[in-house]
Design brief:
The chain has about 450 residues and is of the alpha/beta class. The longest helix is centred in the C-terminal third of the chain and has 21 residues. Bound molecules: pyridoxal-5'-phosphate. Pyridoxal-5'-phosphate (PLP) binds next to helix 5.
Length: about 450
């Protein structure tokens, strides 16, 4: 009989201090040996001292008084926090006996980081896997997926063509040996981020400003990360949750469906697991600003220093952000201005991954623009970071606005065999709270079955 993989509960991912000390020690010592399955116990936002990996952005970079706190996803195994939803979906399926080790092949529809997470997790948990993704994403993504041993099934296009990956997955799923870790539609993604990311965000602001969260801003791909907002609102009911979109692909704001350059977000849909009830605002950020902003931070720390950023801090920022992080940071700055937040207020956002998968994107930028001399980068720095405006923010708090998003969801998901009754249940917060409560059931099952025969 196949065995259930030996991995953490939701509680242990949030609180690694609750892991058996011997196992935790082994996991921490095995970080360099990344394909050692004990690394499943390093799926957490916390470092070896049980503190959330985060950075409070220097005010000289943001130009606002509010504290912008960025949670750092780069330190998760596989280099991005998307490994968390991949693991959660697989372990839930496993303890439910729906995904059998050695029998089922795992499908991971993705634009990159989730696919990397799926390939990685399947390597550790001994499943074959196929990552289904567009053929025009950053080269570094495909390299990593192959390195982790997954097969690639490529559909045409870029980030905005992710619907083609869903259609392909829908077809492949007809094979009874295939099981899909469908990040856009399955609730373990919601559970992971509401519980693990949400509560980590709440801990991350302790001792900063007033110790509360005034705003959580995140650019949805699957909208899993946005679920952290549901938990943040439980702790801080005044918190505003903001979905950020590329200006070039403003689906949630006004049905826009253009091509854009921010890998991982702006997928031309309202995902099934997006709880639109708790999304208060949507704001648009330029894709080119996000790419250029990353270039400045990575290639030109001296320009940050000229603007007053501490040299050590400027250096420390170089490798911990990706393009979508810059989008999130620009969105956080925009919302600090829009919501008129002050020095006591905290905005939390997320760096899903780090620079390691964007060299090719910055090379491409260098080829696209005529000059990247310092005098150009100086101007970019001021225009992109210091002159963020409060345009293109839409208030989604009225039911009329939410209705538009519910309709978008129907448009996107009824075609994949979800019933209108199921979608209507999502109009009530009870649906989301009930789904969240399932964590208790799953944690109990994971503990009981860990490492044992199915
Ligand atoms: C780089 C990057 N940023 C942001 C996101 C969006 O995160 P989520 O899917 O949780 O909305 C993703 C998702 O894959 C990503 O890869």
């Amino acid at each position: 009989m196949p065995k259930v993989p030996f991995g953490p509960t939701y509680d242990e991912m949030l609180n690694p201090s609750h892991i058996d000390p011997e196992i935790r020690k082994k996991a921490l010592h095995s970080k360099e040996d990344e394909l050692n399955p004990i690394n499943l116990f390093n799926i957490t936002w916390k470092n070896e001292n049980n503190e959330v990996n985060k950075i409070v952005l220097p005010k000289e970079l943001t130009g606002v008084d509010a504290n912008i706190v960025v949670l750092l996803g780069k330190y998760f195994p596989s280099g991005s926090h998307k490994v968390g939803p991949a693991y959660s979906t697989l372990i839930e399926g496993c303890v439910d006996k729906e995904i059998i080790p050695e029998k089922h092949t795992i499908l991971g529809p993705s634009t990159g980081n989730f696919g990397i997470g799926v390939a990685y997790i399947c390597n550790l948990m001994k499943y074959d896997s196929i990552v289904i993704m567009p053929d025009n994403m950053s080269k570094e993504r495909y390299d990593r997926i192959k390195r982790y041993g997954a097969k690639l099934d490529l559909t045409p296009g870029t980030e905005s063509d992710v619907i083609l990956t869903l259609q392909r997955t829908y077809e492949l799923k007809k094979n009874p040996n295939y099981r899909s870790l469908a990040q856009f539609e399955l609730l373990p993604n919601y559970r992971f981020h509401r519980h693990v990311t949400g509560n980590s965000a709440i801990e991350a602001v302790k001792g900063i400003g007033n110790g509360r969260i005034a705003c959580f801003a995140s650019a949805p791909g699957s909208a899993g990360t946005l679920a952290a907002g549901d938990q943040i609102k439980q702790a801080f009911p005044e918190a505003r949750v903001v979905a950020l979109e590329p200006y070039e692909c403003s689906t949630l704001m006004n049905g826009g469906v253009g091509q854009h350059r921010i890998e991982g977000i702006g997928d031309k849909m309202c995902t099934l697991i997006h709880n639109v009830l708790t999304t208060d605002f949507v704001a648009l950020i330029s894709d080119e600003d996000s790419v250029r902003g990353l270039k400045i931070i990575h290639d030109a720390p001296h320009i940050l220093v000229e603007n007053g950023v501490d040299p050590k801090v400027a250096e420390s920022l170089r490798d911990i952000f990706g393009v979508s992080t810059i989008c999130n940071i620009l969105g956080a700055i925009k919302m600090a201005k829009y919501l008129k937040l002050g020095a006591n207020d905290n905005i939390v956002t997320v760096a899903t991954d780090g620079y390691d998968r964007y060299n090719s994107v910055i090379d491409n930028l260098n080829h696209r623009v005529l000059e990247t001399e310092d005098f150009v980068l100086r101007r970019w720095f001021k225009d992109i970071f210091l002159k963020v405006d409060t345009e293109h923010v839409d208030d989604l708090r009225s039911m009329a606005k939410k209705e538009r998003l519910f309709k978008q969801k129907e448009h996107d998901w009824l075609r994949f065999d979800y019933s209108i009754d199921y979608l209507n249940q999502m109009r009530d917060m009870k649906f989301w709270n009930d789904e969240y409560e399932l964590i208790k059931k799953y944690d109990k099952k994971i503990l009981e079955k860990r490492g044992k025969e199915l």
